[in-house]
Structure formats: structure tokens, C-alpha cells
UniProtKB/TrEMBL annotation:
It is an enzyme of class 5 (isomerase). This is Ribulose-phosphate 3-epimerase. The lineage of its organism: Bacteria, Pseudomonadati, Pseudomonadota, Betaproteobacteria, Burkholderiales. Its EC number is 5.1.3.1. It comes from the Bacteria.
């Protein structure tokens, strides 16, 4: 299957989520839910130029969540505008029929809510069969035991720190304890030979709370209103560049450095804009 070429060689130091000299990855994933939809190509190019690691793409169906957003056609339309991976968060029920459509449209990562799929294991396999990274999303009240029999099949765990459906909500503080729980599970999994699993958090992430969120264990941070609400004028704080830099710096400052040392993961994604070439690349062992 024709998929995106992931190659981070061209990324400047400090861009696309790497924090130079820190030894830790901080990945900021701006949610285009808060972007100007009339200028979406320009908006995603701007966040990539500002150092975004991922484009976070929120899909809402007015059924699983009480809002209606964007689908595969929009994913396909923005794909040629950026090299960074598109991180598709499916807030839909049922899930499976959309997976081949998003894979074809250029998604690199597809996450879904386990309670929205009748067969979670089958849905995870379907995502991977279509050449994408797979993740589970846990709502604020969804227990972490969903990870008990799935962690070895995941590339990402996404913890919702708001109830899904709308941007601009307040961060739910109980997410910090949940992050610590999932961080520990992932660290044990890695230390016992498991594959890399990113820990993403989504909802109400701002410059004034991202350090605490990083300290609790997140490595990948969705930020919608914080990024796209940033004033454009450089004199007013540097626009997207300024806010992304502050988010990265604060997150890196909050990261714990006493965690078990594990090898760097190999999740180095970049779409080749020049050729439009598309094939997933990962050397991770897949179960
Ligand atoms: O999935 C989402 C809502 O369901 C959004 O990604 C999330 O809320 C990000 O927006 P903000 O940073 O403004 O809270």
C-alpha cells in the first residue's frame, strides 16, 4: 500500500518536537479545530513552520459527540501542505468504516475511543493493516484498564483532559493522576521490551499548565485554542512561533529526568511534500 514516507532528516534542530540537548521529546500537536477553516492550508503550513510535531485532526460525528466537524476529504486536502504527520482523532461511532478512508486520505496516526468500537482489537489491527499508527483515546471517566490487554498493540495512548466535543474547555485536573498511572504502565512496558508508545493529552493545554502535565508523564500535547488563539503580530508575543516555543520550553521544563532510561523510539515521521510519496515507515516490531 502506498503510504507516507516518514523522514525527519530535513527537520531543523528544535523543530518538530525535539528539544535540543534535553534528551527528551516534547511534541506539540496543534488541534486544527481552533484554526481558521477558510484558510486551512495556510494554517497548517504556519504551524509546521512554527515547529509543530503533528497536525491534530479532530473528527466529530454529531453522534458519539455533540458536534460535527471534518472528514477524509479535508484530510486529503491538507495532506500536501505539510510534511509532519496527521494525527486523526476519531470521535465517531461506529469507527471501522472510516479507517480505510482516512488512511487513503493521508492520515499517519489514527486514534479512537474503545467504547465506540464493538471489537477494539479488530479495530486496532485494521488501523495497522492500513499502514497507520494506532492509538486508544480515554475520556475523563473512561478507566485505564482498557490498556490491560491492548498496550502491546498501541503506538499512542491519548488521554482526554476535557469531555470531547468542543475546543476551548478547561483542563480537568484529575487527568494528572491518570497521566501518572498511564506513564508508569508505558515505562514498565518499555523496560520489559515493549514497543514505544506515545502518551498524548488533549484539552485545555496552555502555557501555564503544560509543565505540570509534562511532569505527570505526557510527551505529546494537543493544543487548539492556545495555539490558534495566539496573536499574529510578532510584537504581541510572536504569533504561532512564540506560543509554540513557550509551550515547548514549559513542557521541557516540566519533564521528569529521573524516569527509567529507555532507547529513543523510532517514530520519526515526515511526509515527503516534494514527491507526495506516501508509505509508512517504522522499524518498530509489530505484534
Ligand atoms: O478533541 C478536542 C475536543 O474534543 C480538541 O482537540 C481539544 O479540546 C483541543 O482544544 P483546546 O486546546 O482548545 O482545549
Amino acid at each position: 500500500m502506498n503510504r507516507h514516507v516518514w523522514n525527519q532528516a530535513a527537520a531543523p534542530e528544535g523543530a518538530h518536537g525535539t528539544t535540543p540537548g534535553s534528551g527528551v521529546d516534547v511534541r506539540i500537536a496543534p488541534s486544527i479545530l481552533s484554526a481558521d477553516f477558510a484558510r486551512l492550508g495556510e494554517e497548517v503550513r504556519a504551524i509546521e513552520a512554527a515547529g509543530a510535531a503533528l497536525v491534530h485532526f479532530d473528527v466529530m460525528d454529531n453522534h458519539y459527540v455533540p458536534n460535527l466537524t471534518i472528514g477524509p476529504l479535508v484530510c486529503e486536502a491538507i495532506r500536501p501542505h505539510v510534511s509532519i504527520p496527521i494525527d486523526v482523532h476519531l470521535m465517531v461511532e461506529p469507527v471501522d468504516a472510516l479507517i480505510p478512508m482516512f488512511a487513503k486520505a493521508g492520515a499517519d496516526i489514527i486514534t479512537f475511543h474503545p467504547e465506540a468500537s464493538r471489537h477494539v482489537d479488530r479495530t486496532l489491527a485494521l488501523i495497522r493493516e492500513h499502514g497507520c499508527k494506532a492509538g486508544l483515546v480515554l475520556n475523563p471517566a473512561t478507566p485505564t484498564h482498557w490498556l490491560d490487554h491492548t498496550l502491546d498493540k498501541l503506538d499512542m495512548v491519548l488521554l482526554m483532559s476535557v469531555n470531547p466535543g468542543f475546543g476551548g474547555q478547561r483542563f480537568i485536573p484529575g487527568t494528572l493522576a491518570k497521566l501518572r498511572d498511564v506513564r508508569e504502565r508505558i515505562d514498565v512496558h518499555r523496560a520489559t521490551g515493549g514497543q514505544p508508545v506515545w502518551l498524548e493529552v488533549d484539552g485545555g493545554v496552555k502555557t501555564d499548565n503544560i509543565a505540570a502535565i509534562a511532569h505527570a508523564g505526557a510527551d505529546t500535547f494537543v493544543a487548539g485554542s492556545a495555539v490558534f488563539g495566539a496573536p499574529d503580530a510578532p510584537e504581541a508575543g510572536g504569533g504561532y512561533h512564540g506560543v509554540m516555543q513557550r509551550l515547548r520550553d514549559q513542557a521541557a521544563a516540566g519533564m521528569r529526568h529521573d524516569r527509567p532510561q529507555i532507547p529513543e523510539d523510532d517514530f520519526k515521521p515526515t511526509y515527503d511534500k516534494t514527491t507526495g510519496d506516501a508509505s509508512c515507515h517504522s522499524t518498530s516490531a509489530r505484534p
